[in-house]
Amino acid sequence: MSLPTLHNLLRPLGSTGLKVSPLGLGTVKLGRDQGVKYPTGFTIPDDDEARMLLAQARELGINLIDTAPAYGRSEERLGPLLRGQRDEWVIVSKVGEEFDAGQSHFDFSAAHTRRSVERSLRRLETDRIELVLVHSDGNDLAILEHEEVYQTLAALKQEGKILGFGLSGKTVAGGLKALQQGDCAMVTYNLNEQAERPVLDYAAEHGKAILVKKALASGHVCLAPGVDPVQASFELLFAHSGVSSAIVGTINPLHLAHNVATVARILGRH
């Protein structure tokens, strides 16, 4: 019996014209192992392991890959790893957060935004990035209202260097404002945290894109015995019509296959 895949379950990424798999592959674990909020430690995969993980994701029907300058070496590793298959992926990257020597620092200026996107293009060995999100420090509204990052991303979209932009934020007010002026909001939404649900509601009403981060609560979800936390998490997410895709950052091939099978089963019933 063949394994369930997501090939026939692509969904619109809001009104960008792009279609994405309901699961995306997060790649922080390809680039850094410091300052990450997972319950257990992990070893960064080598190039062969990373290549096999990406090949497995493609075979399972995943076409969305999520990276960021703040994910250590993630972008610069993905460039060579994706050579020859660039057109098969929708790439999401970020701008605003840098991670050096174990510390994050933030810069939302116009100059840094442009420099960061152009550096991401070089690292990823590509002429465009499908979606660039502002990597918020938590002060979502202040960033959107007083910094130049959103206007600069709009200009980069006009130039064709990026195809869409939005905010990976932490507040309802930030998510709503990000969607009014941009294409996408990346929100936290899981069995433990549902405060940003109004952002999902707005996206569903206005044809905007939602990417979900921490869909499995970074591996921290614990439920009653006999309840599959992965199944329960994805049931919650995909019950909401606003969700375009959930980003899951696993480097475990068994977890990846289980996640895909679970989502395929849930969406196959709808």
Briefly, what is this?
The chain has 270 residues and is α/β, with parallel strands linked by helices. 38% of the residues lie in helices and 18% in strands.
Explain what the structure shows:
By secondary structure, this protein is of the alpha/beta class. The protein has one domain (11-269): NADP-dependent oxidoreductase domain (TIM Barrel), CATH 3.20.20.100. 38% of the residues lie in helices and 18% in strands. The protein has helices at residues 28-31, 47-59, 74-81, 110-123, 140-146, 149-158, 172-181, 197-206, 229-238, 253-269, and strands at residues 11-12, 19-20, 23-26, 64-66, 90-95, 97-100, 103-106, 131-135, 165-168, 184-188, 209-213, 245-248. Strands 3-4-5-8-9-10-11-12 form an eight-stranded parallel barrel, surrounded by five helices. A two-stranded antiparallel ribbon has the order 1-2. A hairpin with a 6-residue loop joins strand 1 and strand 2 (19-20). The longest helix has 17 residues, at 253-269.
Shape: globular
Query: CATH class, please?
Result: Alpha Beta
Total count of domains: 1
End-to-end Cα distance: 22 Å
List the defining traits of the structure above.
TIM Barrel, 10 helices, 8-stranded parallel β-barrel, alpha/beta, 270 residues, globular, two-stranded antiparallel sheet
Q: Layout of helices and strands, plus pairs?
A:
Blueprint: E1 11-12, E2 19-20, E3 23-26, H1 28-31, H2 47-59, E4 64-66, H3 74-81, E5 90-95, E6 97-100, E7 103-106, H4 110-123, E8 131-135, H5 140-146, H6 149-158, E9 165-168, H7 172-181, E10 184-188, H8 197-206, E11 209-213, H9 229-238, E12 245-248, H10 253-269
Parallel strand pairs: 3-4, 3-12, 4-5, 5-8, 8-9, 9-10, 10-11, 11-12
Antiparallel strand pairs: 1-2, 6-7
